[in-house]
Amino acid sequence: MTLVLKREDVGSNGVFRLVVFDRRHVDRTFLWFNDSDLARMLNRRKSIDLAEHMRWFESLKDRQDCLYWAIETCDENKHIGNVWLRDIDPEHRKAEVSILIGDREALGKGLGYMAVELLTEYAFNHLGLHRLYSNVLAFNTRARRAFEKAGFKLEGRLRQDRWLGDCYEDILIMGKLSFTTGVAAFAFAVCVCFKP
Ligand SMILES: CC(C)(COP(=O)(O)OP(=O)(O)OC[C@H]1O[C@@H](n2cnc3c(N)ncnc32)[C@H](O)[C@@H]1OP(=O)(O)O)[C@@H](O)C(=O)NCCC(=O)NCCS
After folding, report:
1. What pLDDT digit, counting tens, does each position of 56-113 carry?
2. Largest CA distance in the chain
3. Closest by alpha carbon to 20, among 89, 90, 103, 83?
């Protein structure tokens, strides 16, 4: 399967949709990026000013290593967060998944894991990626659970990988492989085992 990198909407699960990150998502994202609690979860240590934020937004359309979507609710068309793939590696067909539910009212309702699940299905079946992973700070239990519920496995721990400004913290590597890979591996194993 060829790796197809397109900037298009992912689709909807009836509760929310993942749409291409656009100008209308910039303002709320700017607030979330500068929210100290959220920044700590994402290990962003610096606040950013509006000019820098706009440069980042303008750069998105040309980037080959990153795809970015906004999460909008179906009932109210409310922008509640973002999901993105970064470090997209076309040779090894892998990418890092990140998610941010910035709207506090939307937290803890299962939207986080559902957004990861929807993006994962799209990344494997439409983009042709083979492996997805996330680097989760060890204290971020909610993120770890959200990825686990979306089918990610704990693959390893990088001890004291990140400096948080006042202490070091471990990184948990959560990973998920595409289902087709499993089928292919099973077919291969059957061929090898039953070879006359
Ligand atoms: C991580 C995040 C996406 C999870 O989304 P969410 O919608 O709040 O989480 P969900 O409702 O899908 O819940 C996922 C699991 O976490 C659990 N959870 C919810 N709040 C929790 C908390 N404060 N502490 C521990 N677990 C919590 C839920 O109970 C659920 O597990 P369960 O079904 O076994 O009970 C969201 O909290 C977020 O955007 N956080 C800030 C940014 C961030 O941490 N991003 C991840 C970087 S890798």
Report:
1. 999 999 898 999 999 999 999 999 999 999 999 999 999 999 999 999 999 999 999 9
2. 67
3. 83
> How far, in Å, from the CA of 146 to the mean position of ligand 1?
5
At residue 43, the pLDDT reads 87
Q: At what angle do helices 26-33 and 50-60 cross, to 10 degrees?
A: 120
Q: Letter for the amino acid at 16? A: F
Q: Please state which of the four CATH numbers 3.30.450.40, 3.40.630.30, 3.40.640.10, 3.40.50.2300 is assigned to the domain occupying 11-193.
A: 3.40.630.30
Tell me, in angstroms, the distance from the centre of ligand 1 to residue 163's CA: 22
What is the distance in A from the centroid of ligand 1 to the CA of 4? 30
In this prediction, residue 192 carries a pLDDT of 39
Place of tokens 């986080």: 112
CB-based contacts of 29, cutoff 8 Å, min separation 6: 21, 53, 70, 82, 102
User: Domain ranges in the chain?
Assistant: 11-193
Q: Within 13 A of 103's CA, how many CA atoms are on the CB side?
A: 18
Is the shortest distance between the CB of 100 and ligand 1 below 6 Å? yes
Distance CA 122, CA 188 (A): 25
pLDDT tens, residue by residue, 153-184:
999 999 999 999 899 999 999 999 997 655 55
